[in-house]
Design brief:
It is built from eleven helices and ten strands. By secondary structure, the protein is an alpha+beta fold.
Length: about 400
């Protein structure tokens, strides 16, 4: 039957409708790693890319990877036998015509002028790069055009006039360079700085078209999987979402009322009879303006024991209760598969809102515990269960 008030299907078909949604899509199972290039706001900045590449091309730098990246480049252009015993690395080298070479590598027998292209087109005097590099070093010189996508036909490109592809001009894709570098990483990583290895991995994650395409393919797979699973049961799924939102709003309203009643009660009477336990602060988290439809809310109360004796002056305990929706407070993640939608959770920790002490100093063990009351119980029964848990926590921790 259909509930005319909210249009929710109550026919009992929801179980069949959502029973197939048990698989975790491939991309959803992958960890999302922090990436300094995206965080800093320059995921496609060409100058940043050139500076990082120059750092790894230089064997004398403090990354500890020695000549790995340089040899990876030489392997990519089939010049593995070049001497790399003495290497100088420059960025933004200026030619006599005031053209700027992104990266210049001076080896004992060869000078390599690298034109690094991330997104922009190729419109450079590459012959001038080679001529100046040869005169500057006194050695043979070549030009490498390094770029992420296979979008240049250098043999017929205006920028390549005067140069011969695969002789003094080489077309190198980022992923070919990265593939050779990663293939050599195992033998170099033992002596390398772990932070430098992580930086290299972040650089590759950020600039590799192959890795980006893999993530896009995973996204497409997620869409295809959901569309396939939802085919023919779209309305039932919409109804489930609507009903779940109604449930979360109702639970928040009920627990918020209970929280306010308890605070009013504790303001007038200590939660531990005969002891000077005062309210330090109280809050809901996240605030109503910030929470999303399926986020949890904490109903938390901090307590401070007055005149506790030596050693514990000013210490604060916070107790929280909340319902069975997935969340992560930065210290602990809930496990919604344990418990039910009728479950109320409880936890306590040293510290409080705005204090130096952090919730990682746990009191309850296990940290998340099921309260001795159900959401379907009366407000009074839930209040009594919360009070009992709080009193038990305070007495145990302060030995009162």
């Amino acid at each position: 039957m259909i509930n005319e008030m909210n249009g929710i299907d109550e026919s009992g078909t929801w179980h069949d409708a959502i029973a197939g949604f048990t698989e975790v899509p491939a991309s959803s199972a992958e960890a999302t790693h922090p990436n300094i290039f995206r965080i800093a706001g320059f995921p496609r900045r060409e100058t940043v890319s050139s500076n990082v590449l120059a750092y790894f091309f230089d064997p004398a730098e403090n990354h500890g990877l020695k000549d790995m990246m340089l040899k990876a480049l030489l392997r990519t252009i089939h010049k593995e036998d070049m001497d790399v015993s003495d290497v100088s690395v420059y960025t933004e080298a200026s030619t006599d015509k005031n053209n700027r070479i992104d990266i210049l590598l001076d080896l004992p027998e060869l000078s390599i002028a690298i034109e690094n292209k991330v997104d922009s087109g190729l419109n450079n005097d590459l012959a001038d790069y080679r001529s100046w590099a040869k005169e500057h070093s006194g050695n043979e010189a070549i030009v490498v055009v390094l770029h992420p996508f296979d979008n240049f036909d250098l043999a017929d490109h205006p920028s390549a006039q005067g140069l011969v592809v695969e002789q003094d001009l080489f077309d190198v894709l980022y992923d070919n360079l990265f593939r050779n570098a990663l293939g050599m990483l195992g033998e170099y990583s033992l002596d390398a700085d772990s932070r430098a290895v992580d930086l290299l991995q972040q650089f590759i994650d950020n600039y590799s078209p192959e890795r980006k395409q893999k993530k896009m393919d995973n996204t497409s797979t997620d869409i295809t999987q959901f569309v396939s699973q939802a085919n023919g049961i779209e309305q039932q799924l919409v109804n489930v979402r609507q009903s779940f939102e109604t449930y979360t709003k109702a639970v928040r309203s009920k627990l918020q009322t209970i929280h306010k009643d308890l605070i009013s009660q504790w303001t007038e009477e200590s939660p531990v009879n005969g002891k000077s336990v005062t309210l330090a602060d109280n809050w809901e988290w996240p605030t109503p303006k910030r929470h999303k439809p399926f986020d949890n809310l904490y109903y938390a109360q901090s307590f401070k024991l007055e005149n506790p004796g030596s050693g514990d002056m000013g210490r604060v305990i916070t107790c929280e209760f909340f319902f069975n929706i997935e969340f992560n407070d930065g210290y602990v993640s809930s496990d919604p598969e344990y418990g039910s939608f009728n479950t109320i959770w409880y936890k306590a920790y040293w510290g409080g809102h705005g204090t130096k002490q952090k919730p990682k100093v746990r009191i309850t063990k296990p940290y998340n515990q099921i309260l001795d009351a159900k959401l379907e119980d009366s407000n009074e029964d839930i209040k009594n269960a919360v009070e009992a848990a709080v009193e038990r926590t305070l007495k145990t921790c302060w030995n009162i």
